[in-house]
Amino acid sequence: MIRSNYVFTSESVSEGHPDKVADRISDTVVDAFIEKDPEARVACETLVTTNRIVLAGEVRAGRAGKSKAENKAFTKDIIASLQPKVRAAVKDIGYAQKGFHWEKAKYACYLHGQSAHIAQGVDATAKKDEGAGDQGIMFGYACSETPEMMPATLQYSHNILKRLADVRHSGERPELEPDAKSQVTLRYENGKPVEVVAIVVSHQHKKKLNGANYSTKRMEDLVKPYALSVFPNGLVTKKTKWLINPTGKFEIGGPDGDSGLTGRKIIVDTYGGASPHGGGAFSGKDPTKVDRSAAYACRYLAKNVVAAGLAQRCTIQISYAIGVAAPTSFYVDLHGADTIDPAKLEKALPELMNGCTPRAIRTHLKLNRPIYARTAAYGHFGRTPDNEGGFSWERTDLVEELRRLA
């Protein structure tokens, strides 16, 4: 039986969190390759720690009609161009600290060519479609809790940090530094959020807050108004528990305070624990990797199901085998909604994306574009599609077609 009354929590982390710095760098690398070659293959992992940035992974880029040697040199040239792009990404986040500085951090790149054994199973030929780059399971989820069709606990956690980042970048709050975490706990009645139980914000800061020495009270006075602004009226009550920098001072942060790695915040990136997760990270992977593209496709389809009014919640799972184009399974859960048989959607939804093969997903969502660095913080989902094609998986252009199925 589906529970309708409960308490649930999700967390978010800021763009300056060490793992998110790593994600941003890895996705900057993806964009750099796709900008030069829309069919480029990239699997980039990044490590950041005290004044050090390390890249590793496999890449391949090329141009039709060029020799193997020419394409190898082409790939090498892209790799050589990465350092200023990486440093610019770190600068944009806001790191110019003694322990982690966009200009002074040591940089090392160990990217190398993609395995030929992987390439032989993934590349399309005259006899077969492009295969999946690996086996795996991917999930998509949508719900009616927020206008973004995201779990409210996660959406509010993201919104708090995004609001604080905006005032930090604008100069309105120069006391704030880039590293931060948030956590929101909501009480649900009849499946709907009715009260904020607790709000946790831990935010890195300079030594002085508005010209005065640090105190918990000053930090609370700084953070609370911005956090409050992201919630609908009445959701935060007198009983809401606030925990702002509960351990006290937070001056040493970012990669100087803790090392960061690509792909360690996969629950923050997706649905805050409200949905299952297949286990694969997104950042650092080009869109031929189904860990990324198929998860985007599942979110796209689930969001359209909810937007069409076929369910209040929708979970979709898809699976693949390495080197095989067609999915090995496709599963739809409407969480008790009886407006349509889920089995009917399991047949219809893949057909709306030409079978959900890796190539079909990339074509339908137009994923072969340098649109990935913008996804690295504040969630890959619940965002607004932009004019450059970013977040195309957040469109709801299948609604009328789905309504006709009901």
The class by helix and strand makeup works out as alpha+beta
Beta content comes to: 15-25%
Strand order of the largest sheet: 1-6-7-10
How many DSSP E strands? 13
Mean pLDDT: 95
Your description of this structure?
This protein is of the alpha+beta class. 33% of the residues lie in helices and 23% in strands. The chain is built from twelve helices and 13 strands. Strands 1-6-7-10 form a four-stranded mixed sheet, with helices on one face. Strand 6 (176-189) and strand 7 form a beta hairpin. Helix 1 (18-36) crosses helix 3. The longest helix has 19 residues, at 18-36. It is flat and about 65 Å long.
Please provide a brief summary of the model.
With 406 residues, this protein is an alpha+beta fold. The chain has helices at residues 18-36, 68-80, 82-93, 116-122, 152-170, 216-228, 254-257, 266-269, 290-307, 342-352, 358-365, 399-403; strands at 6-13, 41-49, 52-60, 106-113, 136-143, 176-189, 192-205, 208-209, 212-213, 241-244, 260-261, 313-320, 329-333.
